[in-house]
Amino acid sequence: MSIATAAASRVRVESQRANSLIGQVGEMVVLTRRTVVSALRPPYSYGPELTSQFLFGMRVAWFPMLIASLAFTYGPAGIQAAGFLDLFGALDRLGGLFALTVMREFAPLVCAIVMAGCVGTAICADLGARVIREEIDALQVLGIDPIKSLVVPRFLSLMVLTGLFDIYALLCGTFGGMLVTLSHSAPLGPFFATFFSNATVTEFGASLLKTTLFGAMIAIVCCYKGLNAKGGAEGVGRAVNQAVVVAFLMIGAIDYVFTQALLATHPELSSVR
Fold first, then answer.
1. Which of 26-30, 35-39, 132-136, 182-186 has the lowest mean pLDDT?
2. Which residues contact 254 (CB under 8 A, 6 or more apart)?
């Protein structure tokens, strides 16, 4: 009986966790709808907060973005790929490979990871501290919508920042490919020739759209976890940890679905030219 009771208790606990997870996903969907509606519905009083959050995110993330972009592209993508291509005397194809990997995967993923780790955690901690200090309740008592005044500017600023930093990551990633080419004592002409023959407008637009979706998702997850923080300072730290984990999982899921949908609707992007 004790084993059966323990098993039943374990099943009950797992069922409660599953229901809690499904409930949190539903609440995030509701928060997304409320945020989009609040952003589009006048009055647009969140301008100063939007500017402040945009400048804060740019100040916090630009240097980690630079280091991460160069490290990921020059290291695993550049050195390994260049060494493999150099065995067959095809180092000139490195530019085409970089156009596909950096524009399609490395730049959006690096951008999303850095934004989640630097800006998303700061957003979650800030909102969580406001909840603990009961500032959110005070805003509601004053008749101020916390969604419009706090969530919307962070949502919009992260979407814009991820799109802009994607271009930044593309430039830094391409520079990493140039460094790899020069380190192998090869000319840059063939690198750029194959790079621009594979770098299409569709690929670039898809990269921007993917990173914008990453930014929207990171903002919703971090704002939701921050607004639902409980238990004092320890609860805020726990909310930040959960926000980072959930954001990384969602980044992987969105990246897989988006890439598969892109290749299914544009099969010409699968071939290296």
1. 182-186
2. 210, 213, 214, 217
**What contacts 217, CB < 8 A, 6 or more positions away?**
247, 250, 251, 254
pLDDT average, residue stretch 114-142: 90
- Nearest CA to 242 among 114, 116, 53? 116
Domain boundaries, the chain: 46-270
pLDDT tens digit sequence for 66-93: 888 888 777 766 777 777 777 777 777 7
Contacts of 156 (CB under 8 A, 6+ apart): 39, 46, 50
Give me the helices (H) in the chain, please: 2-40, 47-72, 80-87, 94-101, 107-114, 121-132, 135-141, 146, 152-183, 188-198, 201-227, 232-265
Burial of residue 203 (number of CB atoms within 10 Å: 0-12, 13-18, 19+): middle
What is the reported pLDDT for 1? 47
Residue 88 vs residue 190, higher pLDDT: 190
Write out the two tokens for 25. 């996903």
Distance CA 230, CA 134 (A): 11
Taking CA atoms, 174 is separated from 38, 74, 146, 273, in Å, by 38, 9, 41, 18
The whole-number pLDDT of residue 143 equals 83
Q: Report the C-alpha gap between 31 and 34 in whole angstroms.
A: 5
Cα separations in angstroms, 240 against 32, 93, 96, 109, 132: 19, 43, 39, 20, 14
Q: Read off the pTM.
A: 0.87
